[in-house]
Structure to design on (259 residues):
């Protein structure tokens, strides 16, 4: 069932059609996705506050601290690595500075935090929070970046050398390597480290009915973020003019402008 949810997200028309986006439109998508990425560490901080299980908190702390790999300040953070990749893709520092969240992006961020807060108020908060953190913050992020890599990989692997310091590493270390049923102490990806504790807590839970419902809501939330870019997809042959891409700067939703 989880694999079907992953496939439903992976097959969103924008993600599935990432290589069909014009370069400027792909850059617009990456700039909006950057604002979502900036919420990764505040989301982990919130979850650490809301978790009651100390083992789960320790795993979350470890993952959070990996975002800032060097306490001396000599190593760039993961946010800085993302900026490096964006610059290598031809997005200028000026364009990054001038970018603003669209209304759809702001709503997606707000909905994500509301999902976490609501989960934290439930009696089974630990189970719900770990489910969200693993699926929203790790598994589906790897799916996103795997799709996005299809569009940006050729630019970041010129000459056969992989020069990506953010997108490619994240599609690897956020990935789901094992199912919840087979996850083990040998697991090393972020999602599988969270899954290890989640599977232990699920084994003691009186009910796991919530699990699919939470993951379904995460998929809906994630898909809504990409819906704002649907007007940017060029029409496939035979589709007529209805799906034709809009010019850069086209309105893609009420109050949403892709610059």
């Amino acid at each position: 069932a989880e694999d079907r949810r992953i496939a439903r997200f992976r097959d969103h028309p924008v993600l599935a059609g990432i290589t069909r986006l014009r370069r400027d439109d792909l850059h617009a998508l990456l700039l909006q996705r950057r604002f979502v990425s900036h919420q990764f560490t505040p989301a982990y901080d919130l979850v650490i506050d809301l978790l009651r299980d100390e083992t789960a908190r320790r795993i979350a702390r470890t993952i959070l601290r990996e975002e800032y790999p060097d306490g001396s300040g000599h190593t760039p953070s993961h946010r800085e690595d993302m900026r490096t990749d964006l610059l290598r893709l031809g997005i200028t520092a000026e364009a990054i500075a001038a970018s603003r969240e669209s209304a759809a992006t702001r709503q997606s961020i707000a909905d994500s935090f509301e999902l976490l807060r609501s989960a934290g108020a439930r009696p089974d908060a630990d189970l719900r929070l770990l489910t969200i953190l693993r699926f929203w913050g790790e598994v589906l992020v790897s799916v996103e970046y795997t799709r996005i890599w299809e569009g940006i990989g050729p630019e970041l692997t010129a000459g056969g050398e992989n020069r990506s310091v953010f997108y490619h590493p994240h599609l690897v270390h956020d990935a789901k390597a094992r199912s919840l049923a087979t996850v083990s102490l040998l697991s090393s990806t972020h999602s599988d480290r969270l899954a290890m504790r989640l599977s232990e807590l699920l084994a003691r839970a009186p009910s796991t009915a919530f699990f699919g419902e939470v993951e379904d809501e995460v998929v809906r939330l994630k898909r809504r973020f990409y819906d704002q870019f649907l007007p940017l997809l060029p029409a496939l042959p035979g589709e007529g003019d209805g799906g034709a891409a809009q010019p850069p700067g086209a309105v893609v939703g009420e109050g949403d402008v892709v610059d």
